[in-house]
Structures are given as structure tokens and as C-alpha cells.
Specification:
GMP Synthetase, Chain A, domain 3, alpha/beta, five-stranded parallel beta sheet, 592 residues, Rossmann fold, 19 helices
Length: 592
């Protein structure tokens, strides 16, 4: 990994490496590869001055930023092991990772964050130093006695000392301990070597080649392997620029200002944009019809170009004649919401629903789905703009072998597959049985493409013996902008039920229509409100077998977030946590 950066600095020293928003200047500021390399060098000196043992774990609790990637690169250069953590994770989870990894150094964003971690429980005895990005008086806290340094003072002090450095890492050394999202149970530390990561970067570049003039917009957390490989290490290999978004709330504004050419995202971002568009169109039936016409004509054009079968019918000549007008009135305004010059929009981390994929692809957004997992560093397969079937996750990357095992489980083998789980020998042996990574995902391989069918362990089996994939149901429900999030369940129950998080504005409109007080909690339980929601869900899921359609529903306005431990950093549902949180509500749904 250090060689990857050194090569980039040597090849394009004056190219723009990173761009960030400077609040003091109220402007976006660029950093060249030469400047970035020098900055990493200073961070490495600062880290070396601590005299950490070989292979020390360096915990990084920073938002996506120039400082975060500098700390990461400095650790890699010294043969230390970066441990990226989600900046909004709760203090207990952070403390668990510090203890599990026996971290020697923690680099965190603020003193407030550090205080909450220190108060959460006993700290690992290996923790030698804490460095805070936001300044505070130096010195150990009375409670811990661990030295606490300000980041800038730490770096400046090492510039004078010029400490000696430990040996550079080998390709078989660890390049990261990345903790899985933990949809069930405690998260596990995935051991990724330098060989794992570099091989994955090289394989992705053979399939989707970024350019030196590309601009990535980084907003997914760097604690997730998808963003680390595709949105951080890949741009280094290609010499592309990465702009750090200010926040997810300001993402729409940042997309219009930065105007990225490559976007690395999870499905929920595309779903939110689509829902917002539908909400805007709701008040104008003529605009709705125009949007649907553009989407249908565009999808037919896309399917013809890709050689895909489609149930939609329409003369190619008529679509060609109508498209310039539909493009100007519908497609271009939509694409402008993403900055207007995206050439690749990657969707990963979870399945992208087909209606959303068809809508965006039909209107010209070059969305390509991929598939991977933390344990495979992470990319296993992907589509490309030239070879794109959105019903699949594309073809396996060069050098990556895939096959279907028992119970239709997708198995993966290649140089990108992890060494194993940190201090979890039994789990490692189970998931890497016979030299193949057992993904836990059911799949089919058709004409070289991988189609994901669902999770082996996430299939709901009702008490009547019916089997249902909950993710498919949830995606169908969330196509309606009224529903921000949904959770379907029914294991060992007589039927499927659901709990949905309502969009606040949509709920206020619906409540007023039903002559309910939208601010009153009891309105969410009003029979009239539940009935309307149930009818909308029935319509949204009518394509599913009758036994798969939710027959009972509960409403809430409280979002499920990483902070309240109900979703993972990649926005997947933590189903066990939801079950514990809504146990009483579930019983009421089945008592009706």
C-alpha cells in the first residue's frame, strides 16, 4: 500500500489529490499529490515518535477528511494496522473495538468524543496515546492517565525530532482491521492484508478505469471497506481527485458544486433522490405523466443498447424521435441534481431495487451495481456502463473465482479474500471452509453474471411454511416516498407484518387529510391512519404472493440510525436490534 501512494506522487505530483471545504475561507480548497505525500510524511514522523510496537493497531475515529486519510497512510507506511471506526458509532461500540484490537493509539475528532469513550468502561492497557483533531489542553486525564495530544502540536513536535521509523510492511502484513457491520451479535474484525487490498484495487481497475481527470465525491464512511477500496485507494491508484462532502445533509448542495464524475454510493441515496422527485411530482399529474413517459422511453432505449429483454413495448423510431424533448424536459434536470457530469455512479453495499434502477438508467444516470463484502476487500463482481444488467451484480472480477455451494450459497476464492477474523479462529474456519469464502448470500450464476437471491439466514419462514425474502418486500414498500424505512418480519408467525418509519412531511399531509393531529403520538395508532398505510403497502406489494404481503402494520416517526444502533453504517437493518426495540409492538400486531 505505501508503494501505491509513492508511485502516484511520482507520476502526477502536481495533480489534484483531494479537495475539502475550508470553513474559514468559505471555499473549496485543493491539495496536490506532492503536498499530500509530504503531509503523510509528517504524520508518519509523528506516529513513529511514539515508539509503538511492530504491527501496532492504530484506531481512527475521524470523519472523512484529509486528516483521516493522512493518519491511515502514515500507519500503513510504518507497518502499523489501521482500525477505521464509524465516527457516529456509540461509545460502547468504539470501546469494544479498542479493547478487541488492543489498540496502541487512538486518533479521534474531539475531546468530547474521547471523554464519552473513556467513561464507557475500562480502556485497553495497550492504549499509549490519544490524539485529538480538535485542539484541547494537552495532558492525561485524571481518570485514565493516558497522554492526550492535539493533532497539530503532535505533528509539529515530530518535525523537529525526526524519529527513526520501523521497517516497511510486506504484502502479507495487515493493511487493516475492518469491523463488520454486525447485523447480528458483536462485530468481527476482518483481517485484510496489503495483498488483499492491492489485488482488489488492480482487479477493479481492469473493469472500471478511473481517470486522472475524474472527481470522486466521498461521503460514505471510511470505516466501511466499500468506501476505503472504491472511494479512497482506487483514486490513489488512478490519480483521481477525491472531494470530501461536508455532510450527508449538505450532499445535494455539494453534488451541484463539486460536480463529481464518479459517485460511490449505497442504494439508499438513490432511493432518497427518487422519493424526493416523486414527492415533487405528486402535486402535478401532467408532470407525473411526462416523467413516466421519459422513464419508459429511456429504459427501452437502454435495454436495446444493452441487449436486455424487457416487457415494455414501443417502436424504437418513436422513442428516438421523442427522446430529445424528454431528455431536455426530464432527464437533464434530474441529472443536474447529481452535478450533471457523472460518468459512473456505483451502487453497492446492498441491493438496488429494480424500479429505482430502471428509473435512473432510463433517464441517463449511469448506475452500475456491484457486489462484495468486507471479507473480500470488498469487491467480488460488478457491472460496467458498457455491460450493464441491473437485475444482476455483474461478472466476477479478474482473478476472482465464484461458484454456487449448498443451499445456493455464493462461494468466493481469490487473492482479495481476507486472512480471517481477528482472534476468532472458529468463525474463520467456518467462513473459509475448504479455501472458499462462504458469503452467506444465495445467488445464481447465469451467462457469467451473478444474480443475488437473498441472504441464507435472512429468509423468513412463517408458521405455515412459506419462505419470504424480507429485503425484496422492504424495497417495494420504500418505493413510496411516504415510507422512509421499513422492516418486515414473521418468522414462525402465521403471516408477515411490518413496521414503517414515515416521512415527516408526508405524515403531516396524510394526518391533515384524515383530520388527525400529526404531532399527537396516538395519531400514529389511529385506525384510519393504519388503514390508509395498510392499503398503500398492499398496493406496493401486489406483485408478491399473497402470503408475502404484510397483513398488519405499525407506524413510527423515529428514524432508525447508526446512532440508535438500529442500522449499520451502510444503512442495512440490524434486525435483532429492531426485534428487541419493537418487541411489544410486534406482539400487538399479532394479537389483532
Amino acid at each position: 500500500m505505501p508503494g501505491l501512494l509513492a508511485r502516484r506522487v511520482a507520476l502526477t505530483p502536481d495533480g489534484e489529490a483531494y479537495r475539502h471545504y475550508d470553513e474559514d475561507r468559505a471555499a473549496w480548497v485543493g491539495v496536490s499529490w506532492r503536498e499530500f505525500g509530504a503531509r503523510v510524511d509528517r504524520f508518519a514522523d509523528a506516529m513513529a515518535s511514539l515508539g509503538l510496537p511492530q504491527g501496532a493497531r492504530v484506531a481512527i475515529l475521524l470523519p472523512n477528511s484529509l486528516d483521516a486519510v493522512c493518519v491511515d497512510q502514515a500507519a500503513l507506511a510504518l507497518g502499523y494496522v489501521p482500525v477505521p471506526m464509524h465516527v457516529v458509532d456509540n461509545a460502547g461500540s468504539i470501546l469494544y473495538i479498542l479493547q478487541d484490537t488492543e489498540a496502541a493509539l487512538l486518533v479521534a475528532d474531539s475531546g468530547t468524543r474521547w471523554d464519552s469513550i473513556a467513561a464507557a468502561g475500562p480502556l485497553p492497557s495497550t492504549l499509549r496515546c490519544v490524539v485529538l483533531r480538535q485542539s484541547r489542553p494537552e495532558g492525561g486525564t485524571q481518570a485514565t492517565g493516558i497522554p492526550v495530544l492535539g493533532l497539530q502540536a503532535w505533528v509539529d513536535r515530530a518535525a523537529v525530532q525526526r524519529p527513526s521509523r520501523p521497517p516497511a510492511p510486506t504484502e502479507d502484513d495487515l493493511a487493516g482491521l475492518v469491523y463488520t457491520s454486525g447485523t447480528t451479535g458483536k462485530p468481527k474484525g476482518v483481517m485484510l492484508t496489503h495483498r488483499n487490498v492491492v489485488s482488489n484495487v488492480k482487479a477493479v481497475m481492469q473493469r472500471i478505469l478511473p481517470r486522472t481527470d475524474d472527481i470522486f465525491l466521498s461521503f460514505l464512511p471510511l470505516s466501511h471497506t466499500f468506501e476505503r477500496t472504491a472511494g479512497y485507494y482506487l483514486p490513489i491508484a488512478a490519480g483521481s481527485c477525491v472531494a470530501f462532502a461536508r455532510s450527508t445533509s449538505r450532499l445535494p448542495e455539494d453534488m451541484k458544486t463539486v460536480r463529481p464524475t464518479v459517485l460511490i454510493s449505497v442504494p439508499r441515496i438513490y432511493e432518497r433522490v427518487h422519493a424526493k422527485v416523486q414527492e415533487m411530482l405528486a402535486a402535478s399529474p401532467p408532470k407525473q405523466r411526462l416523467f413516466r413517459a421519459a422513464q419508459a422511453a429511456g429504459w427501452r432505449r437502454f435495454a436495446r443498447a444493452q441487449g436486455l429483454a424487457t416487457e415494455q413495448r414501443g417502436p424504437a423510431l418513436l422513442d428516438a424521435i421523442a427522446w430529445p424533448l424528454l431528455d431536455r424536459l426530464v432527464a437533464k434536470p434530474l441529472l443536474a441534481q447529481f452535478g450533471g457530469r457523472l460518468r459512473v455512479a456505483v451502487s453497492g453495499g446492498a441491493a438496488l431495487s429494480q424500479p429505482i434502477a430502471h428509473a435512473f438508467l432510463g433517464l441517463g444516470l449511469p448506475v452500475v451495481q456491484g457486489y462484495g463484502m468486507t471479507e473480500s476487500a470488498p469487491v467480488v463482481a460488478c457491472n460496467t456502463p458498457e455491460d450493464n444488467d441491473p437485475a444482476t451484480v455483474g461478472r466476477a472480477l479478474p482473478g476472482v473465482d465464484v461458484r454456487i455451494g449448498d443451499n445456493k450459497e455464493l462461494l468466493v476464492r481469490g487473492p482479495n479474500v481476507m486472512r480471517g477474523y481477528w482472534k476468532r479462529e472458529e468463525d474463520t474456519a467456518r467462513v473459509l471452509e475448504d479455501g472458499w469464502l462462504h458469503t452467506g448470500d444465495q445467488a445464481a450464476i447465469e451467462h457469467g453474471r451473478i444474480r443475488i437471491l437473498g441472504r441464507v439466514k435472512e429468509i423468513i419462514v412463517t408458521s405455515t411454511g412459506e419462505k419470504i425474502a424480507p429485503v425484496d418486500l422492504e424495497q417495494a414498500i420504500e418505493a413510496d416516498p411516504l415510507f422512509e424505512q421499513s422492516w418486515c418480519f414473521g418468522d414462525n408467525r402465521p403471516f408477515i407484518a411490518a413496521i414503517v418509519v414515515l416521512a415527516r412531511e408526508g405524515w403531516e399531509r396524510l394526518a391533515r387529510e384524515l383530520q388527525l393531529d400529526p404531532a399527537a403520538p396516538e395519531s400514529l395508532r389511529a385506525p384510519a391512519a393504519v388503514k390508509v398505510v395498510q392499503e398503500r403497502i398492499r398496493e406496493l406489494t401486489k406483485a408478491f404472493p399473497y402470503y408475502a404481503q404484510p397483513r398488519s402494520v405499525a407506524l413510527t416517526l423515529e428514524p432508525w440510525t447508526v446512532e440508535n444502533a438500529l442500522i449499520t453504517p451502510t444503512l442495512k437493518l440490524k434486525r435483532n436490534n429492531l426485534q428487541a426495540r419493537f418487541a411489544d409492538a410486534m406482539e400487538r400486531l399479532y394479537a389483532r
